């Protein structure tokens, strides 16, 4: 039997000044799934993430988290607290704090900066952070300033911050952008490691990376604000509609 749904979006529409960015969108994600979303520029990928996180509210439709909670009435803050974490394309870590402190500041996200930095850190917190450091391969950079990390390492730290925040659903926007090939491959390994324990939506343009993380899984292609098709990487890559609106154009470019 399939895992239960962690996210279902049904009949979602969103217009900006009369322009339909999202049109009758239906999207279903099961618990523990790692789903890659691809599509041409302007397809509505970022807007879709904005709708999930409450940054933008839809005109019509429903978005339900964990099979129960309707997200639309909730604020961005409340949605984070429910367990929805987002990583933007540009890393936003606290560069003047150490890697360890960045994770400490994110723990549950509810303690407040003052309390976190000046109260005594418990051994449970330290163990948890060390476990996250191991997961994101930054154990050796624990006491270094986050500002001294490479671009790729900052992205991993930010993923670690989502883990510290207790995110169940991770929304990750173009993680491979600006990374070296080695960093990209390591990022893929990290996401594969997190899948199962977390539900993950990754937006990505780099098809080598998509192949790495999506082989054996479902890929969603967005086009003009709707799902154009869903299927395996191979099925999607060979779908004439996807070649026409996206992959063919990418190649030509
Ligand atoms: N706040 C806004 N106001 C007006 N138009 C917007 C707004 N946000 C998005 N749009 C428009 O909605 C469409 C979808 O944009 P969106 O950024 O979601 O696409 P995308 O698939 O993420 O594209 P890319 O791959 O280039 O990031 C675009 O035409 C964009 O100009």
Protein model, in words:
With 253 residues, the chain is an alpha/beta fold. It contains 10 helices and 10 strands. Strands 6-7-8-3-9-10 form a 6-stranded mixed sheet, with helices on both faces. α3 runs parallel beside α6 and α5 (123-135) packs across α6. The longest helix has 14 residues, at 151-164. It is globular. The protein starts with a strand and ends with a helix. The mean pLDDT is 91. Adenosine-5'-triphosphate is lined by residues 16, 19, 21, 39, 41-47. Adenosine-5'-triphosphate (ATP) binds at residues 16, 19, 21, 39, 41-47.
Q: Which terms would index this structure?
A:
4-stranded antiparallel β-sheet, 10 helices, alpha/beta, 10 strands, 6-stranded mixed β-sheet, Rossmann fold, binds adenosine-5'-triphosphate
Hey, roughly how much beta strand do the residues contain?
Answer: 15-25%
| SSE ordering | EEEHEEHEHHHHEHEHEEHH
* DSSP summary, beta strand count: 10
Strand order of the largest sheet: 6-7-8-3-9-10
Number of domains: 1
The SS-based structural class is alpha/beta
CATH class: Alpha Beta
Distance between the termini: 42 Å
